[in-house]
Specification:
Layout (H helix, E strand, L loop, with lengths): L14 E5 L4 H12 L3 E6 L2 H9 L3 E4 L9 H4 L4 E4 L11 H22 L3 E5 L24 H18 L7 E7 L1 E3 L7 H9 L4 E2 L5 E2 L1 E3 H13 L2 H4 L2 E5 L5 E2 H11 L8 E2 L1 H15 L10 H5 L10 H7 L7 H14 L4
Parallel strand pairs: 1-2, 1-4, 2-3, 4-5, 5-6, 6-11, 7-10, 8-13
Antiparallel strand pairs: 9-12
Length: 344
């Protein structure tokens, strides 16, 4: 058990719920709260996941954001809810399924939390609501430009939750939206393919490699959620915050940094973008009717084309958030974890 830092003493004595506790971000947040000795319950999608967490000594319940069931009993008595759960890479599912979870399910959770007396609701969205950013760095006032069904439905969910929150009385539930950047770190498998390709020498950059990426190390991201939960209401209610680590860098620089940290030589060969994008489109067209996850999809190709660079000054001014992890150290820790777990 770790001592609870002074800045988070406002969490002491609170009953806390974290949805998506089997996922990368939700799992880190859930375990950090538990490590502080706080009263935290995690929700997961499948009963076997809940059983595994209980076997490890955690409090866990099953929650499906697509369910039409009542969630009053689950949320009754909770003081703080972190909604991290989402439908993310199930590309084989249609937009209706994504919308039911990321939009209507998230809104229903916020409404239920308010009705049963939850004091704070922190909703995890994504910087993907900005799409390929045109204002560099993008601020929270930059125009939205979601470019796929995940980002469209996440935007619909956060906008619906914020609109609901604006109608609450002054002494009502505090509602905050947290928009993570490209979160990575020990435990992450989403970026494993990129790291593995670079460190095995098989990586080839798609396109120019000059698009900007803004990483968010998992410890920084977890810290930002906790700051959202303890900040004064007048600083965070009905507010959204971009969260990332360090500074953005080009994909060429990112690949080079991963190679340097992993002590390998990086190939300078680039693959033309258009054939890959067309291949991704074909995979989606063929696989979707079959209910099969495509091996390649356009959002993954978008990693090589979309600029992602974000101004973090609002989070600093309102939350006191300052990134503690630079890109080199975060990437080094991630490579170490991959290697220790025989993933590379």
């Amino acid at each position: 058990m770790q001592p609870l830092p002074k800045k988070f003493r406002g969490l002491q004595g609170k009953a806390i719920l974290v949805t998506g506790a089997a996922g990368f971000i939700g799992g880190h947040l859930f375990r950090r709260l538990a490590d502080y000795g706080l009263d935290v319950t995690g929700t997961v999608l499948f009963p076997e996941e809940a059983q595994r967490l209980r076997a490890q000594g955690y409090k866990a319940e099953v929650l499906d954001l697509a369910s039409d069931d009542s969630w009053d009993d689950l949320l009754q008595g909770m003081d703080i809810v972190f909604n991290i759960a989402a439908m993310f890479q199930e590309v084989e599912c249609g937009e209706g399924a994504y919308d039911k979870v990321n939009h209507h399910g998230a809104l229903k959770l916020a409404q239920t939390a308010c009705r049963v007396g939850v004091g704070r609701f922190i909703h995890c969205s994504t910087v993907g609501v900005y799409g390929d950013v045109k204002e560099i760095p993008a601020t929270e006032r930059s125009p939205f430009n979601p470019m796929d069904l995940y980002h469209r439905t996440k935007l619909a969910g956060e906008l619906a939750i914020l609109e609901f929150a604006r109608q609450l009385p002054l002494d009502g539930m505090t509602v905050t939206v947290n928009r993570p950047a490209m979160v990575y770190g020990p435990g992450d498998l989403r970026m494993l393919k990129l790291f593995s390709a670079i460190l095995s020498g098989t990586f080839r950059m798609i396109g120019s490699g000059e698009a900007l990426a803004h990483l968010g190390y998992i410890e920084d991201q977890t810290e930002s959620f906790l700051l959202c939960a303890v900040a004064p209401k007048d600083r965070v209610h009905c507010e959204a915050f971009n969260i990332a680590s360090d500074a953005p860098l080009t994909l060429n620089a990112l690949a080079s940094l991963i190679a340097t940290c992993g002590e390998v030589k990086l190939s300078r060969f680039h693959i033309p973008l258009t054939p890959v994008w067309l291949a991704a489109l074909a995979c989606e067209v063929i696989c979707k009717p079959l209910g099969v996850k495509p091996p390649l999809f356009r959002r993954r190709v978008g990693f090589f084309t979309h600029n992602r660079a974000f101004d973090l000054s609002k989070a600093k001014n309102h939350l006191g958030y300052v990134s503690q992890w630079n890109n080199k150290d975060g990437i080094g820790e991630t490579i170490d974890w991959y290697r220790k777990n025989a993933l590379l």
